[in-house]
Structure formats: C-alpha cells, structure tokens
Amino acid sequence: MGSRASTLLREEEIEEIKKETGFSHSQITRLYSRFTSLDKGENGTLSREDFQRIPELAINPLGDRIINAFFPEGEDQVNFRGFMRTLAHFRPIEDNEKNKNATTSEPLNSRTNKLLFAFRLYDLDRDDKISRDELLQVLRMMVGVNISDEQLGSIADRTIQEADTNGDNSISFNEFIKVLEKVDVEQKMSIRFLH
Amino acid sequence: MEGLWSLALAVFQMWMFVVVFLIMLPAMFGLSLGVTGVYIQMLVHVLEWATLRIQRGRQEQPGVPIPLPSGIIERAGGSLEEQMEQLRRAHSLAGSEFALSDAFFFYKKGLESIVDDQVTQRFSSEELASWNLLTRTNQNFHYISLRLTIIWGLGVVIRYGVLFPLRITLAVIGLTWLVIGTTLVGILPESRAKSWLSEVVHLTCYRICARGLSATIQYHNKENRPQKGGICVSNHTTPIDVVILANDGCYAMVGQVHGGLMGVIQRSMVRSCPHVWFERSEMKDRHAVTSRLRAHVAAKTKLPILIFPEGTCINNTSVMMFKKGSFEIGGTIHPVAIKYDPRFGDAFWNSSKHNMVSYLLRMMTSWAIVVNVWYLPAMTLQDGEDAVQFANRVKSAIAHQGGLLDLDWDGGLKRGKVKDSFKEEQQKMYSSIIVGHKISSTSRERE
C-alpha cells in the first residue's frame, strides 16, 4: 500500500518538486503513491519493466519511445524526482504562468519544452535532428505491418520535404517548431491533472 | 496459583458458553439475535462522525491532502478512433495523410496511462473516500484530532481484544466441523440421505464461518437463486465469496487445487459433495475442463456449479473480462453480483501480497464484512451469439447490478503480459486513418 511510502516523502522534497515542476502538494503526494504502486521492486526507482507492466502502455504503439522519455541517456532507473520532471511537461499551461516575466527560467510545461519533448520522441539517436531513417522507424512503430515500405517511404519523404528548409534532408528542432506552428500544442500535449 | 487456574478455567468456560450458545447454535439454524445488526448500526454512526471530523480537520489544516476516489487525472472520453479523428480535424490536414503531431496523441495517451490506468489499480486495494479508522488504510490521513485518535484506539482494543478472539474461535470451530463433518459424510454410501446430510454440514459450517467474519449479508431477488443443473457465475473479490454465497444455498465448486489450509479444506469437502477441483496442469487443458463440467451440468440433479469467470480476484471496484470457458458448456447461467461495502474492511484478497492465513487474519481484525448479493434472472445463449459475446453480456449485467465498472481487460494481466494483438489493433486503427484519408482523396480525384 502506498500508505507508509507517502509519509516517507519528506516535506522538503515535496517543496523542491513543487518549485521545479509546478505540481501542487496534493498532486505530488497522489502521484507519489502512484509511483510506489508501480515500483514493484520497492527500491524507490522505476525500471523499464515497471512501466511495461501497465497494459494500456504496453499496447501503445509508441509505448517504448514514451518509456524512454523517462530515462536519461545510459540509465535504466528513474527516481521520483525524474519521474515528476517528465510528467511536468504534460501539465497544462495555467494563465498565471503565461504572463511570467522572462527573467525566471522557462517552466517545463512551456510550449517550447512540450515541443522539444515531442521532438525527442522522433530523434532516436539524440543528435537534435530527425533523419529520414528515424522518421521511418517511428512511423513503422505507429502503423505496424499494415502499410508497405514503399508507401511509408513516400510519407516520410513528403513529411521531410514539407518541414526541411535548409535542404539537409532532415528536420531540426527549429524546423519542427515551424511545421507545428499552427498546432494547439498546449492542449494536445497536456493532461488534466486534478487538483 | 490454584485460584488463578480456576479463574482462567471459569473465564474459558464463560467464553465457550457465549460462543456456543449465543453465536454458534443460532447461526447453525440460520437465526440471528440481532447483535451484529446493532453493531453495524453503531459502526455506521461512528464512521459518519469520523468522516465529519476529518473533513473539518482538512479545512483547518490545508496541508492534509484530499483523497480522490475518482483518480488523479481527467481523461477525454470517446473511443480511440473518435479522439484521433478529433485531433486530426483540429489541425485541418488537407492533402497530407500523416502529420508530425499525430504522435502527440499516442504520447498523451501513454502518459495518461502511466499516471492512472484502468487495469493495474484493479489489482491493489481500493482507495477509500474517507478513513475508516483502520490503521492499515491510513494512507493519506494524518493526525487530525485527539477525539478521533481515542476512538481509533478504542477500535483497536475492541477489534483485537474482543472481536478477534471471538472470530478465531468461531472460525476454528467452523472449519474443524467442515473437515470432520464432510469426512464423516463422505464415508456414507451414495444415497439421497448422503447428499442431504452433506448439504446440512456445508450450510451449517458456512454459517458459523460467516459469523467468524461478522458477515452481514443482504440477499436481493431470492427468487432468482441458482437452480440445480445450472451454472452460477459471479464476480470475484476474495475466496470469502464462496462463504458468502454458500450461506444461502449449496454449490458445487470449480477451481484449482490449492496448497496449505485451502488444500486441506478442499480435499475434505470433495469427499461428501461433487466439487470439481483441477490440478494446475489440468486447468490448462481447456477441453478436459469443459467436458468435465458439461458432464456435471448434464446430470440435472447435481448442485449448481459455482464459477468465477474472471479467474482472479479483482478489488471490488470493477468486473473484468469473463473467460469464455464457462459459457461454452451450455445450460442456464445464473449471474450473481457481489459487492462488499469497503467502509467496514477491505475484502479484496491481494494474493501476491498476502497468503491465505494472513489475509484471513486481516479480515478478522477488520470491523466487519458487509456485503450485498444480487441474484440476477437466469440467462441463456441467444441465437447467433457466440460464447465471447454471451460472456460479455453476462458480465455487463453483473457490473450494472453491482454498481461496478465494466472492463474488457483480462484479469490474467495481474500476472501475465498483454498480448501483442492488442498493440497490432491500435496500429491497424492508426493505419486505416492515415490510409483512409488517401483513399478518400483518390476517389475524389476519380469523380
């Protein structure tokens, strides 16, 4: 039960997470009890297997890429801080956050950060560019065996053509932002966390 | 020294007198002196009072988190296809069949399932709306007031000091009676008298056991009680489900052979009554299982079979996929919905966390078991319906009656992994969306 565990979360830790992620006190304790219930090893961190045990995630065509977003390069465990940092990208942007002065660092759930997060989903080798090959791989994950290589190739080509402005046959983050200019990222990359 | 001994003896005699004459004997004949009823009434009042105190405490100290039985996040409704369509329509994709932003949909879905999914939380204890004064459920509740703490302390003394020894005595008597009684009846030759005696033994000891758990059972629509030659299917929360149902009639049970305490009980029960136990290896051979059950049902005189088609215990909030096996046998299905009142104690058996004995100890130190049982009208396979559809229909009826969430997920996911075919279905859905666009655009060109 998440019972004893949630009391293990120290007040100072909650405060720090609150500052970093913008989640409220009760959201943090609730997500902590979710975290501990996923933590089957009971060691305070989640592994890839812990995530894969969620059936709805396991059937998600991009499940593996999503799980990957929780793990920094070369690591295979994520602690509660890291877990919350990733989730924070999906907090809706609140009105009072929009008008924050520019001097404070950009919150994790800003439009740019949400886009960067989505960009990394495609950028498999983390070289800040989406190559045709990377796009093809992600597309293949999404469609499975239902679409031929040829057809998928032409989809990838067209997508890159539309986005690529400097002619390097890949999509940089800036080009990515431009293509998605009109998309309501704030809404599509947000989850309504209850207060 | 001698004085102490005689005092202890006197106390023991008193104790046994109370147990045997005031609880056990009335229970055996299905009578009640109304003590449990009064106890439950009092409990309801105490818990209501505690809820008020906690709410007040929360207003005074805003740091105390409010538990949310409805979950952590609010999800968008509608099927996958609808949501996806909506998403795509929103950024008006003219011409192109794929957009980089399509991944957002899966991304959001994935994150939502990480934060709050429908399946895994069915395999852990249900969250309560308000603390029920049991230490073990005190998850997000902190110290609130002195009075509440005193009441909780009193509760501990009553539960562990009075109720627990009482329940243990009853359970031991009940189970011993069951093992001895069924073994004795088992020696008798097959006859009508034997099955009658067997029913008497079963019924009386289940009633004693039910007292041992302070079970208050409310049966609804008794006219729909399962009949001989039929199959009774029910949602499954705990092995106690069996005791609950058997308090109102006898069943032939179907299930896996267990080890330990359960094994001893199972072995003695099968001697007097045609229960159907399977070895784990046999269970895999679905064909053998079905044919044995079919043979049982074909003999119209035999007790109704009791099956839990979910195949595993679910935490009393939902009904999960019904395995189709029991619906292929043929014969009449008598659906039963069982819903426990979580305020008085968590009836769910989390078998990966507690073994049978420690689970029973938890139950015996809870406040009580208050449970509603609904007998639903008999159902049969309709024309043009296959076993899977029939199973789903019965499941929905049970979920609806019991006020439980109707889920299509397989309870087997508690231990096993999800099948790849589900992922393939998602991929197919997405493919048809992006190819569908293309097809419609080419057909427009043709016109």
UniProtKB/TrEMBL annotation, chain A:
Task: State the Gene Ontology BP annotations.
Answer: protein transport
Q: Which InterPro entries match?
A: Calcineurin_B_homologous, EF-hand-dom_pair, EF_Hand_1_Ca_BS, EF_hand_dom
Q: Which GO terms describe its molecular function?
A: calcium ion binding
Q: Where is the EF-hand domain?
A: 26-61, 110-145, 151-186
Record CDD domains: EFh
Q: Could you tell me where this protein is found in the cell? A: Cell membrane; Cytoplasm; Nucleus
Q: Main localisation, per the record?
A: membrane
Q: Name one GO cellular component term.
A: cytoplasm
Organism's domain of life?
Eukaryota
**Statement: the UniProt record of this protein carries the keyword Repeat:** yes
Q: Which family does it belong to?
A: Belongs to the calcineurin regulatory subunit family. CHP subfamily.
The protein in question is named EF-hand domain-containing protein
Please give the organism: Echeneis naucrates (Live sharksucker)
From TrEMBL, chain B:
Q: In which pathway does it act?
A: Lipid metabolism; Glycerolipid metabolism; triacylglycerol biosynthesis; Phospholipid metabolism; CDP-diacylglycerol biosynthesis; CDP-diacylglycerol from sn-glycerol 3-phosphate: step 1/3
Q: How does it sit in the membrane?
A: Multi-pass membrane protein
Residue ranges crossing the lipid bilayer per the database entry: 144-162, 168-188
Q: Is Metal-binding found in the keyword set? A: no
Could you tell me the keywords of this UniProt record? Acyltransferase, Endoplasmic reticulum, Lipid biosynthesis, Lipid metabolism, Membrane, Phospholipid biosynthesis, Phospholipid metabolism, Transferase, Transmembrane, Transmembrane helix
Q: Which family does it belong to?
A: Belongs to the 1-acyl-sn-glycerol-3-phosphate acyltransferase family.
* CDD domains membership: LPLAT_LPCAT1-like
Q: What is this protein called?
A: Phospholipid/glycerol acyltransferase domain-containing protein
Q: Which GO terms describe its cellular component?
A: endoplasmic reticulum membrane
Q: Ranges for the Phospholipid/glycerol acyltransferase domain?
A: 230-341
Domain of life, per UniProt, equals Eukaryota
Task: Name a Pfam family for this protein.
Answer: Acyltransferase
Q: Name one GO biological process term.
A: triglyceride biosynthetic process
Q: Quote the subcellular location field of this record.
A: Endoplasmic reticulum membrane
Q: Name one GO molecular function term.
A: glycerol-3-phosphate O-acyltransferase activity
Q: Do the record's keywords include Transmembrane?
A: yes
Name the SMART domains on file.
PlsC (SM00563)
